[in-house]
Specification:
Its EC number is 5.6.2.4. The chain has 545 residues and is α/β, with parallel strands linked by helices. It folds into three domains: 206 residues, P-loop containing nucleotide triphosphate hydrolases (Rossmann fold), CATH 3.40.50.300; 108 residues, no CATH class; 205 residues, 3-Layer(aba) Sandwich (Rossmann fold). It contains 20 helices and 15 strands. It has a seven-stranded parallel beta sheet with strand order 11-12-10-13-14-9-15. A six-stranded parallel beta sheet has the order 3-2-4-5-1-6. The longest helix is centred in the first third of the chain and has 23 residues. Bound molecules: adenosine-5'-triphosphate. Adenosine-5'-triphosphate (ATP) binds next to helix 3 and strand 7.
Length: 545
């Protein structure tokens, strides 16, 4: 009598094989990596939700990637799996890593896998739900983010003008105690609307009552005045719909997913979701990822590297419970930066110095960072170019990043004199837009020229942090914007300035912790006030004329 093998038998057979395989995995997914016992425990251990936590360079991203590949190998049946991050350059880098992993390339076709940015994922989902049509979104680099922000500012500016003009009909209709102050300019209101959308306070009663945590303290906004802000918010959304062909702000994607929740059936959800650099995602974006996960949500990140604004939400409130035992895994061995680079980065005083309490181990020793005072901006680039030549003469396989802080170049780097100067001397210079197609570590003499924002999550043998002066760290214009305001309470103003400096120091920390070997910090003019946090024994100095 012949035996009939049922589908269930087959599934159970393959599951057993997968389990046996699991115990024999030697985790050789990538070259040159021997996982630590802590990393292996994270990869082996199954949880519905888990945070892989640790300071810069401790291997959070690589551990997450191993866990992701391990899931692909272990699951015998086809699963829907998402690997996601906010930043386009980081996803481009992850895809490059995955393409180099033989075991991933061999096994990926067995599942439905998306390795993508938040906005691409959201865009595809909303198209499937027929909520949006339209053309494909462009890549979400810092340049794109700034362009979106500038558009919003311009459009909101038009509306605000009406609501503040005593001759206008709109102004007349506003009750006296709901009229806006002069401090409520277009920028303030654009930021308020962005904050409302990021945090999902888009229903009137909720917005009127909510504690405005993470918002400017020096510019007062009464509850009554929030009625006017809400009115502007409504007019702005209508404007986007009617005059700009249903244009969506970057913050609208998550809101749209939440609004269409009931149409998101199980087949559109993911069995496994892996989130890299979770601290970059806005609260509503995290909430949607919780919604879209069927089986397991693994997030990785370092809260100290947050660049986005504060918010009233904790992970718990967004549906991620990481307080249970085994769900918050901390890594503390730094595989990237030398002890010397980390010592200098750690001396930066932000978030009340909480990051300084970490237990730390290092695998690399190196030179102390070099801080170079240059006679002027041209000389600064001359120093950088000469140094890069020296680096490549010694070893053309080493990689270099030049990290600038020029806002105008972020939105239009094509016209950057610095980029032109680099291209004049070197053949392979990428920027954040063509990083994925151009920057190639299998080729020699690779340079990335990028903003301090787009460098998140990446690493290079040598990094040049240029413009480390009092114009750019912190960005002077941000503080000047605040000081323009005559009516501010002094202590509140100080709090706002401290907040800007705190965010700027975190950005500097991220930029400083990208170097595997050497960190050079160059400036012309006056050195950044953030250098006051450094101890002189932790760096070398040079003058370049
Ligand atoms: N066990 C290991 N053995 C060797 N190298 C490792 C190991 N773990 C991580 N690395 C390497 O250390 C570097 C930093 O790792 P990774 O980028 O994952 O850190 P991270 O914690 O995500 O950093 P950041 O938050 O600063 O982006 C990478 O080059 C990675 O390949």
């Amino acid at each position: 009598m012949s035996e009939i093998i049922s589908k269930n038998d087959l599934i159970s057979f393959f599951s057993n094989i997968a389990e046996i395989w699991q115990h024999h995995i030697d985790y050789n997914f990538f070259k040159d990596i021997e996982l630590s016992p802590d990393q292996i425990k994270i990869i082996d251990h199954d949880e519905d939700q888990m945070l892989i936590n640790g300071y810069a360079g401790t291997g959070k991203s690589i551990t997450l990637l191993y866990k992701f590949i391990n899931t692909i190998l272990r699951e015998a049946e086809s699963k829907k799996i998402l690997y996601i991050s906010y930043n386009y350059t980081l996803i481009a880098d992850t895809i490059k890593k995955l393409n180099d992993s033989e075991i991933y390339m061999k096994n990926k076709h067995r599942h439905e896998i998306d390795v993508t940015t938040y906005h691409e994922m959201a865009y595809k989902l909303l198209r499937k739900l027929e909520v949006i049509d339209g053309k494909k979104k462009s890549k979400l680099t810092q340049e794109e983010i700034i362009r979106n922000d500038q558009d919003a500012l311009r459009r909101i500016g038009v509306i605000v003008d009406k609501y503040k003009n005593p001759q206008s009909e709109e102004y007349e209709k506003i009750p006296k105690d709901e009229k806006l102050y002069s401090t409520h300019d277009a920028r303030f209101i654009k930021d308020e609307i962005k904050w409302m959308k990021e945090n999902g306070f888009v229903d009137k009663p909720e917005y009127i009552e909510v504690e405005r945590k993470g918002r400017s303290r020096s510019i007062r906004l009464t509850k009554k005045q929030r009625n006017t802000i809400y009115k502007i918010f409504e007019v702005y959304n209508k404007m986007l719909k009617e005059q700009f062909h249903n244009h969506m702000d970057l913050e609208d994607y998550a809101l749209e997913i939440i609004r269409n929740k009931k149409w998101i059936k199980d087949d559109l959800k993911y069995d496994y979701v892996f989130v890299d650099e979770v601290q970059d995602l806005q609260p509503m974006q995290i909430k949607t990822l919780v919604m879209l996960t069927k089986k397991s949500l693994i997030i990785s990140g370092d809260p100290r590297q947050t660049i986005h604004r504060r918010s009233p939400y904790s992970y718990e409130k967004l549906g991620i419970n990481i307080t249970e035992r085994g769900r918050n895994r901390v890594l503390n061995k730094n595989y990237r930066c030398s002890a010397q680079t980390m010592r200098l980065a750690n001396s930066l005083n932000f978030d009340n110095g909480e990051h300084k309490l970490d237990k730390r181990n290092f695998v690399r020793e190196g030179d102390k960072p070099l801080i170079v005072k240059c006679e002027n901006a041209n000389k600064e680039m001359e120093f950088v170019i000469n140094k890069i030549k020296e680096i490549f003469d010694e070893n053309p396989n080493e990689t270099v990043a030049v990290i600038h802080r020029e806002e105008s170049e972020i939105s239009n780097s094509r016209y950057s004199d610095r980029l032109k100067a680099l291209k004049g001397h070197f053949l392979n210079v990428s920027d954040s837009k063509n990083y994925s197609s151009k920057f190639n570590t299998n080729k020699t003499k690779q340079i990335l020229y990028t903003s301090a924002y787009d460098i998140k999550g990446l690493e290079f043998d040598h990094t040049f942090l240029i413009q480390f002066n009092d114009e750019h760290y912190p960005q002077k214009y941000q503080i000047e914007e605040l000081l323009k305001n005559q009516e501010m309470d002094e202590s509140m103003l100080k709090e706002d300035i401290d907040e800007i400096k705190n965010i700027e120091k975190k950005l500097l920390y991220v930029a400083m912790t990208r170097a595997k070997k050497n960190l050079y910090m160059t400036y012309s003019g006056n050195i950044s006030e953030f250098s006051n946090d450094f101890e002189s024994q932790d760096y070398e100095t040079q003058i370049y004329k």
